[in-house]
Structures are given as structure tokens and as C-alpha cells.
Amino acid sequence: KENLIIAIDGFSSTGKSSMSKIIAKKLNYTHIDSGAMYRAVTLYAFQQNYIENQTINIPLLIAHLNEIKIEFKQDSSSQKNHTYLNGVDVEQEIRAMQISKMVSPISEIPAVRDYCVALQQKMGENGAIVMDGRDIGTTVFPNADIKIFITASPEIRAKRRFLEYQQQGKEIALEEVFANVKERDYIDSHREYSPLRKADDAIEVDNSNLNLEETVDKVMEIVQSKM
Ligand code: C5P
Q1: Which of 48, 124, 220, 226, CA to CA, is 20 to 30 A from 204?
Q2: What is the DSSP pairing of strand 203-206 with strand 146-151?
Q3: Is the pTM higher than 0.90?
Q4: If the chain, 227 residues long, is cut into consecutive pieces of 10 residues, what is the mean pLDDT of each piece?
Q5: d(CA 11, CA 186)
């Protein structure tokens, strides 16, 4: 089969985006990081002062959702896909801890989800995509050709994210990263509207004891068996 839709869902910091990027490249498909969209909406809410003291002005955000334009464009120097918010490259900014702390409450808002899901469905309508997120196999593309659900223990995920921050020269305590991972797990899987859960027909891969390369190999095996 050609031009498949491959959905990769799972908890935060499982390496979903990194593996999806590599898998898309191997297949000559487009990778879409759906989490980047929720992060861009969160950044927008900060820019407009719709978030104050960790409280979101939900009606105001909803009223201005149609002013948010999110695009992915290839960066000419690094060849990587970067996230653009209203024409500005925000790839780095959306990964900041300040955004990670507010993104799950923002993602709980049904109007925000509807907005992002519509965009994701539009970007993936022609197939040949690998999309990673929380609800791709359940809500965005319930008929996706291949569904993978990635898990790993929260301790291991926090450690990975912590090392990533360290490599970027960001001094954030492991406990703070661990707390954020656990909090996002909880909110993402308990929200009322389109919670994070494994689709019935998704194949689960636990990568607690696998590195990125090994995870890619395992997922590629599954993908190839279904192509
Ligand atoms: O994938 P990433 O960790 O960057 O996603 C950030 C947050 O965006 C998640 O913790 C979750 O709250 C939200 N998200 C979501 N649905 C998706 C992708 C991300 O709710 N499909």
C-alpha cells in the first residue's frame, strides 16, 4: 500500500517525535508533530496575556483562536521542520519549561482541540504521513493504516527529558522534570474530551529498555509487516 497514515501516540517524553521523524524520513513521508500545535497555541496565549498566574482566560482564548496561524516549514540550514506561529519561527520557544507547564491545561479546552484536530486532519488528508501525539489513532485518524502506542516508565521518561535539557544548557532539576511528566500524564489521560488512551487496534511498544535506534527498528518492523 502507498501513502499510508501512521499514527504514533503515547505519553510525554517517550521519544515519539524523534522516532516519528526518523521513520518518516525512511519512508519518504511527512512527519507532523501534533504536540507542537498545542505548544504554539500555549505560546500564543502567553504572548497575548491570556495566561496570568497559571490561570487561563478561556473565553478570550477561544474568541481569538482564528487568529492563530500554525505552519511547519523546513529550516534551510538544519533541514529540520520548524514550527511557525503567525509567520514567526517558534521551534525553540515552544519547548521551554514555561510552555510545558501550561500546555496540558490548554489542551484540555475542547475548542482548542477542535481547532488543532481540524488542522491535523487537513495536513494529513493525502496520507504519506507519520503523525505523533496523544489522540491521533483515536480521534484525529481513527482509520489510520498503522497505529503504534509507545509507553515507558515515568522515571525513565523524566530522565531522558532531563538529559535533553542538560544538553541544551538548561539547568532544570530532575525532580521538576519528573513532576511535569507525571502531571501531564495525569491531565492528558484524565481529561474529559479526547483523552490520551491506546486505540483498541494500536500496537503497544514499551521502550523503557530500548534506545532511539532500537525503538525505530522495532516500529519499522511493525510498519513493514503492514505495508
Ligand atoms: O508531544 P508533546 O509532549 O510536545 O505535547 C505537548 C502536550 O500537548 C501534551 O502534554 C498534551 O497535553 C498535548 N497534546 C495533546 N494531543 C496531542 C498532542 C499533544 O493533547 N495530539
Answers
A1: 124
A2: parallel
A3: yes
A4: 94 93 96 97 98 96 97 86 96 95 95 98 96 97 98 95 92 95 93 93 97 97 93
A5: 10
What structural domains and CATH numbers belong to the chain? 5-226 (3.40.50.300)
- How remote is the CA of residue 96 from the centroid of ligand 1, in Å? 14
**ipTM surpasses 0.90:** yes
Nearest to 130 by CA among 31, 11, 224: 31
| 127 backbone dihedrals φ, ψ, rounded to 5° | 75, -160
78 is in an annotated binding site: no
Residue 12 CB–ligand 1 contact under 6 Å: yes
Q: Which atom of ligand 1 is nearest to the CA of 135?
A: 21
Q: Give the mutation target among 8, 17, 38 for probing the ligand 1 site: most ligand atoms within 8 A of CB.
A: 38
For strand 55-56 and strand 51-52, is the pairing parallel, antiparallel, or unpaired?
antiparallel
Report the nearest atom of ligand 1 relative to the CA of 100.
6
